Task: inverse folding
């Protein structure tokens, strides 16, 4: 039991540190060089600890909003077959943790907006919402 608590605490601290680094453009470019970043986020979203999932979603939001469009293009992230959309949807609808529910819903909204802008970069479509 003690080991689980220590591991969960380490995950939380690591995610908070990565999120803080990701806030700056230089920091985001630096952590984006780590090829396993998205896989790490996907894995941590499956963790049973609500706080770990919350911090993983916050880091994902940072990557989505700051980097996906500017540095790699949204298609690379949105086309990732490992993107855990079902897990994010579950967190948005079923989590008992209010901040986690809200952050999961915001992440789904961000993904939807990103997909819409990727599919129609000039905003010429009449569709307001693209479903993720």
Result:
């Amino acid at each position: 039991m003690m080991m689980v608590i220590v591991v969960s605490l380490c995950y939380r601290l690591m995610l908070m540190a990565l999120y803080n680094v990701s806030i700056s453009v230089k920091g985001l470019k630096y952590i984006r060089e780590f090829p396993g970043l998205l896989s790490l986020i996907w894995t941590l979203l499956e963790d049973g600890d609500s706080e770990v999932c919350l911090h993983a979603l916050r880091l994902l939001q940072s990557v989505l909003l700051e980097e996906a469009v500017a540095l790699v293009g949204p298609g690379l992230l949105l086309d990732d077959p490992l993107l855990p959309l079902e897990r994010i949807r579950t967190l948005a609808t079923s989590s008992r943790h209010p901040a986690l529910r809200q952050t999961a819903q915001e992440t789904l909204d961000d993904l939807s907006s990103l997909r819409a802008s990727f599919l129609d970069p000039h905003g010429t479509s009449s569709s307001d919402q693209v479903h993720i």
About this structure: DSSP finds seven helices and no strands in the chain. Residues 112 and 124 are 16 Å apart (CA to CA).
